[in-house]
Write a structure and sequence with these properties.
The protein is an all-alpha fold. It is 52% helix and 0% strand. It has 21 helices and no strands. It starts with a helix and ends in a 14-residue tail after the last helix. One of its GO terms (molecular function) is ubiquitin-protein transferase activity.
Length: 364
Amino acid sequence: MGEKEREERSFTEKLKFALNKGDVTTFKRLVKGGVDVNAKFWGKFPPIAGCMEEILILVLVVKQGNLELAGLTNSSTKYKSTLLHEAVAIGNTEIVTLLLQNKAEVNAANDDGRTPLHIASRAGREVIVDALLQSGARVNACTVDGQTSLHVAVWQGRENVVRFLVAAAADVNVQDGDGWTALYWAAKLNYLEITKTLVEAGAKLNFTVKNRGRSALLEAVDKGHVVLAEYLVRQGADVQINAQGETVGSLLMKNIHIPPDIIMRTADFFIDAGYVIRNDQCMSIVRKQKRLIENSDFLQWINAKQSEVLSLANLCRICIRKYLIDCSDGRRISPLIRNLPVPKLLLDFLEFGQQSFSESDSVT
């Protein structure tokens, strides 16, 4: 390697360092110091010496290397990631804006099917998400495994990005290749506020994933997220769903992290919503749980539940709510309840009134 090539390589490393630090000022200073942008390390790029905006774009190319370019702004790497993908991943808003102004393809997808919006949503880059949406990013574009930007934003717990995407008409009911919806992710990871945002945006409550057939409610119960599970039931989640023998009751009893008193309170709530405990396999599960069979209060409670008859009021509530659930196309029933021409006292009863748990009851 000659002296000139060594100097160019050193300069490239400095540019890469400035980029990784997000230090555009330093980058501009380095460029001002002089560089042959047509040298071999720049590959097949067109002459752009003296144009600062294109040079700022060029630094992203330096980061990746080994490119086959048809044009600068929308060129892709060997992984089919464009400069815009790279800029979004780094999180440099100034360069992202520059690329968008230079007509970067906002909906370009890499080999995994990820668009710049997927990357920004996963990273929680709200300003960049907004810029991409304003530039025409397709909010419901899917990766090769069927995930939308909403899926990945929920997965990473990006509450504000989720709100951005929902406001931009993201489809909250897209199921990925495994049947997972954004709501299923939120229930699994105990993101209560995100769950509320999705449900209020029309998320269907009873979609089930492939293989195991679990709903968001069953997943929440299995993970011990009883506050979130209660919220889903209030909104109309099916408490009678059975996924290969798994029910809300069986998953509740099996969860060793949920204290017996919370199991009893949660099960009582599910029963009031229509769960039939006496027809379930709960007793066989309880017998295998030493911590439960040694708890006298719990044993007294579950034995009583085997012969308990619901009140007429509770039976009426279950029937009315079931009718509304059937009318809601699987979405939340709260708006339907509030539109019923009945006294407020009855509306409160249909929504379970003051029956609720505190955040401290949830097991994470």
